[in-house]
Amino acid sequence: MLKLLHIIPSMSPSYGGPSHTLQQLARALKGKGVSVTILTTHHKKETTFKDQNAEIVSIPRLTDFIFYAPLMGPWLKKNIFGFDIVHIHSLFSFPAFIGGYYARTFKKPYVIRPFGTLDAESLRHHPIRKKIYFELFEKKNLQGAQWIHCTSRSEEEALRHLGLRIPTKLIPMGLILNLDNDKTSQARDRLDPQTFGKKKLLFLGRIHPRKGLDFLMEVISKLKQRRSDFVLLLAGSGEEKYIKTLQQKIEKENIKDHIIWLGEISDRLKKRELLKQADLFLLPSHRESFGLAVVEAMEMGCPVLISDQVALAADIQEAKAGIVLPLSTEQFSNVICDILNNPKARDLFGSQGIKLVKEKFDLGKNVENLIGEYQNILKNNSSLCPINLK
User: Fold this and answer.
1) Which of 18, 75, 81, 132 has its CA at 20 to 30 Å from residue 250's CA atom?
2) Same domain, 93 and 200
3) Is residue 103 part of a domain?
4) Is residue 390 part of a domain?
């Protein structure tokens, strides 16, 4: 049995996409007979994450800054021999650094999934600090990897722009399709009466500045000038400070009557039902290294409108599976108004979205490619990767 160690800074839902996609990946790998252990960290105020598809080893961290968890090193030193391959998720963190260090020390092959940490927008955030950290730690980490796991074409392009001569493998994340056998009706919840007879716009994801929610409130303000028969459903969790900032923005734009806060929706069936009821899914991100929520929306036939900063934008445009726009409030509000008036267009985008998910984002198929690449690593490194059988 193939034994994998996945290392990620956090599995908390508040960490967003990386933890969510790793949950999906663990489930798909388990379905193929692969043993998965996830090494992560937790803050003293957080409850320890549990997952039925993987063994979770969560080390307490002393600070949220680079997710510093000093006890992770001793754990790796003691246990890394029990795994065939190490898969590191995200960079510029202590777990990524220490995972790569011990993998190299004990000659365990490893791969890295940057999850957007190497794209231009991310590197512009604290650029001096990141440049120093990159030269001291991450360059050696990347150079020691067997290959870099990219989940989108834009992520591959970002690596090329950095001039990194490291092999890449493009293996998208996605969803395990047909998992619930269309049982969404069993999870139907009554929506707020405020939604009755209204067109439902939906944002589903982490409540975070990167998601463009401040921009979206300005779009809603413009849309309100043209029509009143709509509500924006906000489904997700985030830092209380930022949520308060958004609430102030909503008051300022005088759009409170058009906004409904749903909070975090972790139940898969409830999430699918919400997507099924929505008329249009919105993701106006300033930066998005993948966009699993977009895939979830398309799987349910919900038409999507996203910014051109979402990594899946090119795939969606090519497949005519949704609408991709620059971050212009005028363009967003105009297109939303038009698409809400055109049920045929919504149905067409919805059906094309379903087709695209089946073709490119079926995780059951994509994980077979990933396992094949893992096996190629072991074939090429059999003499360098002794496994402790004790």
Assistant:
1) 18
2) no
3) yes
4) no
